[in-house]
Amino acid sequence: SAMAAQMTDAHRRFLQVLMSHGIMEGSEARKLHQRSCEIHKVYYAHDKLDHFISTINSHLQPLFMQIRKGMSEGDGRAHYALVNLAETEITKMASDYAENELELFRKTMDLIMLSENGFASSTDILNLADQLKTKKMKKKEAEQVLKVFVEDKWLSENNGEYTLHTRCIIEMEQYILNNYQDVARKCNICHSLAIQSQVCESCGTGMHLPCVKKYFRAQTEPRCPQCNDFWTLDVP
């Protein structure tokens, strides 16, 4: 192939801003794309965001970094996250957190992955805090650590229920698929990892809630895309 397209100051600005956020919603990324091109007087085409990003990615390759697109499991919106390919494992977190904090995160991830709906309650997580092998935590301390995981976009929280943050899913998809082979599911519709999902009661096929909603919008009666049995769950 020809030389990778040139990185311009517009590409550099885009990357810098994304780096400082860690993750960005699609509409924000599109605005940033436009603004970056306008500020640096680089040709701007509104439908070329993915092309613009692939130019950045070709220059990030030697650094084992990549901007990846994923979706929010809550509302199905596109997101862009900067991912470290050299250490997408939990090792990336090891430099930021104490050993017992990491253990709490791993155990929280276990709860989320083994749950029916992709959530773990704060009660269940806090009950683990005084069973940690590395160093037990008091509840107050564990609550503080959970807060930090939310701020750092590893977890997200809703009414005392925790799930994996979109950024965490984009970043750790491979890790999760490798480490939770029995329970990790790919969505039957969009084929990316589905944590919060509905699962067919007949054949076990899983789908993200936003994908379920989109898929069944076009169907007269909800049937599983895989086994064609009636979809018994409430369509969101």
TrEMBL record:
GO MF entry, a single one: ubiquitin protein ligase activity
Function field: RING-type zinc finger-containing E3 ubiquitin ligase that assembles with melanoma antigen protein (MAGE) to catalyze the direct transfer of ubiquitin from E2 ubiquitin-conjugating enzyme to a specific substrate. Involved in maintenance of genome integrity, DNA damage response and DNA repair.
Example of a GO cellular component annotation carried by this entry: Smc5-Smc6 complex
Assembly information from the UniProt record: Component of the Smc5-Smc6 complex.
PANTHER family given in the database record: NON-SMC ELEMENT 1-RELATED, NON-STRUCTURAL MAINTENANCE OF CHROMOSOMES ELEMENT 1 HOMOLOG
Family: Belongs to the NSE1 family.
EC class name: transferase
Swiss-Prot/TrEMBL catalytic activity: S-ubiquitinyl-[E2 ubiquitin-conjugating enzyme]-L-cysteine + [acceptor protein]-L-lysine = [E2 ubiquitin-conjugating enzyme]-L-cysteine + N(6)-ubiquitinyl-[acceptor protein]-L-lysine
InterPro entries, per the entry: Nse1 (IPR011513), Nse1_RING_C4HC3-type (IPR014857), WH-like_DNA-bd_sf (IPR036388), Znf_RING (IPR001841), Znf_RING/FYVE/PHD (IPR013083)
SUPFAM superfamilies: RING/U-box
Entry keyword Transferase: yes
CDD domains per the UniProt record, alphabetical: RING-CH-C4HC3_NSE1
Protein name: Non-structural maintenance of chromosomes element 1 homolog
Organism superkingdom: Eukaryota
Localisation per UniProt entry: Chromosome, Telomere; Nucleus
Gene name of this polypeptide: Nsmce1
Main localization (coarse): nucleus
One Pfam family here: SMC_Nse1
